[in-house]
Amino acid sequence: MSIKLRELIRSIRACKTAAEERAVVARECALIRTAFKEDDNQFRHRNVAKLLFIHMMGYPTHFGQMECLKLIASSKFPEKRVGYLGLTQLLDENTEVLMLVTNSIKNDMSNDNQYVNGLALCALGNIGSNEMCRALAREVENMMASPNPYIRKKAALCAMRIVRKVDEIEDKFNSKIGNLLEDRNHGVLLAGCSLLTALLEVNPSYMKEFRRYVPSLVRALRNMVTSGYTNAAEYDIAGITDPFLQAKILRLLRLFGERSADATDEMNDILAQVATNTEGTKNTGNAILYECVLTIMSIEAESGLRVLGINILGRFLLSRDNNIRYVALATLQRVVNVDQQVMQRHRNTIIDCLKDADISIRKRALDVTYSLVDEANIKSMTKELLNYLLVAEPDFKEELCSKICMAVEKFSPNRRWQIDTLIKVMCLGGNFVKEQQREKFCRVVAATPELHSYTVIKLYFNMKESLSQEALVHVGVWCLGEFGDHLVSGKAVGPDSQPIHVTPGDVLDLLYDVVRKPPTGEKAPATHCLVTAALIKLVTRCPSEFEKIRKLLRRFDCSLHVDLQQRSCEFLELLGSDWDSHRAGILDRMPVPEKEIGGAETRVVGDASIDEVPTNTSKGKPGKSDLLDLNDLLDAPREQQAPANQAPPPSSGGDLLDLLDAAPAANPPAPQATPEGFLDIFSGTPAASQEAPPMVAFEKNGLKVTFFPRKEADGSVTVLARFANTLSVPMTNFVFEAAVPKYVTLSIQPATGQVLPPQTDLVTQTMSCVNSTNGEKGLLMKLRIGYVCNGAPVQEMGQVGGFPPGF
Amino acid sequence: MINFILLISRQGKTRLKKWFVPCPERDQFRTIKEVSSLILNRSPKVCNFLEWRDYKLCYKRYASLFFIACIEQNDNELLALEMVHHFVECLDRYFGNVCELDLIFNFHKAYYILDEILISGELQESSKRAVLHHISEQDAMMQENEQAKRKG
């Protein structure tokens, strides 16, 4: 015997334990299943209703799917209604049996009763699959012209679903839009706007065709905001007529007004009216103001209107209501590119939001803050972000660290500040700084010889303070190894003019501490690898500690970590007297990759002293023995002075150490190479530059490279290389590299593309060179060009002289 | 557009769930679990929006029930709250001072009302009067049928 839905719910609610509940449900499900199997017609809809309740509680109910289909096919309204409800709850558009219902829906669409039509349309609109949409599109189209608004609005929303689901028939309903937008019924109007929005989103090229409806939309909106509107009472919410329709129209106007000055002209007035007349004391009014501001900021609005929008935004931002502040920040994020000035004006408010108690607001504020950073405010903004890093929850820290690092890399005024800031980031959030960022830090340091001494001292003292931040320890250990000689030289002078005394013994003690207490237990082997590399490097930098180093290295020669063990064994071998004559060469400082030389020189170094007092850093003296000559630069980037058959590689494993593995010349120029830096900083005012005639630098196999050299006022030379492909097939993976003699500094920016389309010369690449002989020795370049043509890689070399005299 | 609507009691029980985008049953329940624990743990003082995956959850508490709407990145959060309120007012007028128990025992009716308000995640009717009118006419059709059955 079947119990009523109400009774079932009551008995489930009476259960005291989960087990009891499961038992009741299982029993009832068994009964329902039996009833289904016996094809019981009388109670089928009641059983499906019960099943729906059970389904909502999370129990499996798939066996009810077919019953829904049977109910829908019934002629009785109560059964149909439950059937359709079951259909939309128990099935979704990917359920296979759904296709079986298409015919029932089709029948119900032509039923005499509007509510039966309504049920069918609602089902199609909510779960209609691609096939169903396709099969029923014609019926939907007819129903959109029904005299009954109840049918029209539902049909229009079904049309919207069809447009979203089926590509080929998206234009089927275009002719109906006009009538929908002129409809007096708000439901139909709403549905019409939704349909039009979907159409425009699916295919923006319809913009032109539908542009003519802007006046209708404006009129509908004006009617609603004018007092004395006939339907006002029916649609009133908190004193505002149909906020839903208003917002929908505002959103549509936004689509039309974007990048169209004409369309914008038609809506300026009404937007101003909405922005001034809508009362912003309640959520309803604010919802409309929010939509309106978004529209104003997106279209080509006149300045007066824009000010109006900005003022509303400012008011939102200062609101005490968290919801309003949230949407204000969300809006700022979206208009950041439109109006940087507004953003900057609200900077302090935004930064305050970083300290809000609400995570939603903090998150929004943080996103806005990132986009606020520029050259002018990098220092103050970084300070704020570092403050925030101190208190942020762990979830935020990783992103925060990498965002700060990126901003610093992009906008830092000089190297010294950049290094200082990055060290701070690592001191505060060192466990969240990614490998990649640590590596970048090391490159920056390596490429700035003036600051070697400064950096290593600073890192040393920071590490003495705390060894808890992994990134700090890792880069610190690396720097101690590379530049330990600066630390123990005693030449560095502190702020009080006292020389800084660090003995080789102190350095080793510190490394010993790192070995004993690595910052993160699970990554100890990585830390130890770095320490061993630092130790071996210190052999030449602190010869007095030879024995201590050997002893420390011994700790690892039985390590269970294979890499670490191998490394320490190799290093111990290197300490043997056989290697006495070669050791210094092997353990020399790591050469800086070519691309970094370019990148580093483009930014001023900044003060290299340790807080005010200058140190003895004679430029060029330390580091990198001789720069490799022209040919080596391209051909043998990795080979060092080490003799052939060298058993232990001077540095293996460990990402930080393998800076070199990114073979300098074999990579396309680093994308982060700063574009203008060098020139701007030194020249200041743009002075007349001297243009030389274009010259063909390279021509072979259908590839032609033309140089357009230009001598800048400050003496540097900018060369624009234009790559022409005269073949009828594209060249892909195109990489262009250049090397210059020692007396020239070169920085290359990324090419504008990696593919040269056939018969074009669209791709260019800019290089800037500084000739330190002031043109006494002519500019020379060696080229290496690589690309793939017809699937075959091509590698070419070339040499370019013949620059005009004085270049 | 609204991706899904949920009604969750303070104890974390689902009172209504409606998806407008295809979502397998298993994922639905997983989502319900995740979303309700996120929202039930939020302090009442913070804002009514929560970023979740690529979407935004807009929720509001009415008595013992949380009404949650999941909308897309570019949708108007304030308007979503307004839609939720629209739904709540329709329920309130239909049941006459609606309470959680009404929605438990008449959960199907809550769905019927929702179906008159939203289709495919978009609002179809902004007049409460119209919604209630259509619902009551359909309820009348149900009764006629029941009576006919009893007589027959």
UniProtKB/TrEMBL annotation, chain A:
Boundaries of every GAE domain copy: 690-804
Domain of life from the UniProt record: Eukaryota
Q: Where is the composition biased (Low complexity)?
A: 628-645, 652-665
Q: What compartments host this protein?
A: Cytoplasmic vesicle membrane; Golgi apparatus
Keyword Membrane applies: yes
What's the chief localization of this chain?
membrane
Q: Where is this region: Disordered?
A: 597-685
Sorted alphabetically, the keyword list is: Cytoplasmic vesicle, Golgi apparatus, Membrane, Protein transport, Transport
Q: Where are the transmembrane segments?
A: none
Does the keyword Ubl conjugation belong to this entry? no
InterPro entries named among the record's database cross-references:
Adaptor_Complx_Large_Subunit, AP1_complex_gsu, ARM-like, ARM-type_fold, Clathrin/coatomer_adapt-like_N, Clathrin_a/b/g-adaptin_app_Ig, Clathrin_app_Ig-like_sf, GAE_dom
| Protein family (similarity comment) | Belongs to the adaptor complexes large subunit family.
Name the PANTHER family on file: ADAPTIN, ALPHA/GAMMA/EPSILON (PTHR22780)
Please identify the protein, giving its name as recorded.
AP-1 complex subunit gamma
The record lists the organism as Durusdinium trenchii
UniProtKB/TrEMBL annotation, chain B:
Q: What is this protein called?
A: AP complex subunit sigma
Record key words, sorted: Cytoplasmic vesicle, Golgi apparatus, Membrane, Protein transport, Transport
Query: What is the annotated localization of this protein?
Result: Cytoplasmic vesicle membrane; Golgi apparatus
**UniProt family annotation:** Belongs to the adaptor complexes small subunit family.
Spell out the InterPro entries in the cross-references.
AP1_sigma, AP_complex_ssu, AP_mu_sigma_su, Longin-like_dom_sf
PANTHER family membership: ADAPTOR COMPLEXES SMALL SUBUNIT FAMILY
Query: Main localisation, per the record?
Result: membrane
Limits of the AP complex mu/sigma subunit domain: 1-140
The transmembrane residues are: none
